[in-house]
Amino acid sequence: MTTSTTIHHRQKRTSWILGALVFSIRSCSGLFFDQSVVIDPNDPLENTGPSTVITEPVQFALETDTLQGEMFIPRESDGSFTEIYGFVLFMPGAGSSFTMYEDYLNHLASHGYLTVGLDFASRGITTESEHDLKAQQALDVIAAVQSMDSAYESLPVICAGHSQGGKISFYAASTDTTGSIKGVMAMDPVNSGGPPCFLFPNLCIKYPVAPNTESGQRGIMHQMSDGTGSIIFRSEPDFFTNPDEQFNAQYFYYGSDGQGTDAAPSPAFYYDMGNFGHTAYLPMLCSEQIQLIKRSMVAFLQQHIQGIGRDDYLTGNIVQADIDSGYLNAVESR
User: Fold this and answer.
1) In the chain, what are the domain boundaries?
2) Where does the Serine aminopeptidase S33 domain start and stop, copy by copy (predicted)?
3) CB 285 within 8 Å of CB 293
4) Domain 5-333 has CATH 2.60.40.10
């Protein structure tokens, strides 16, 4: 078992009775729709990066569906080509669109990462989540982007997403046979197979990716290639949007035994966001925590992909200051 780094901060739990949206707003220090609040205005990772970002809508005509997406492409200020360090595929939460997360996508692209937002096709009113299909579609989209330009072909791939999108990111990384996927960035990934669980409990245990200690399902993360890095942001279960503890994001890091068995391989970083609401990861709802997440993602990419030491951001004094300020509960790593 690898050595773990752990930083803790005690944070009181709050009531969830006011509803998911109110819970999201209360868990942020800033005002609703206020994007002006920052942690450190001089921090180069929190600030927009040096690259200019151009966007291009794109359709992916796959065998199973035609999916809509958008490419966020780093460029020099004059529009000329610049060095690109990696390719991030971002997938949204269930029932939402990547367009709701554009603050993240623009931020990553400004720091030198080709970033592609992807929307899965709507099936209308259905309880079938088709997570296996979505994971394969993610792999197909990766291959499609790689074939667009010779400059993209050899880029290390990082899958990213929120909620269902975070789970699909790990699903794709667990079933990738090409070795393209080098990392996962997951915001409160949910291990359930389809909502709402209190109405369709048998559907919720479908498509396990992380281990489920209640059902005894092993999941598939043990298939991930060694060295596939990850950063996981986890929130407490909340009644309205992420209620069932057995599907909580903690199992993507802690695994079946609390020690990481059948969970994300090393290197892995785990950010316990405490009572920061599941819907609060949408950047239109939050302030300091969103800045922390954006900054930490850039730090993870720079360390894992570019080889730049960012321990001060990921586990050291910078994130410790965030813990002391109450923006999150704890950080662990292995």
Assistant:
1) 5-333
2) 86-190
3) no
4) no
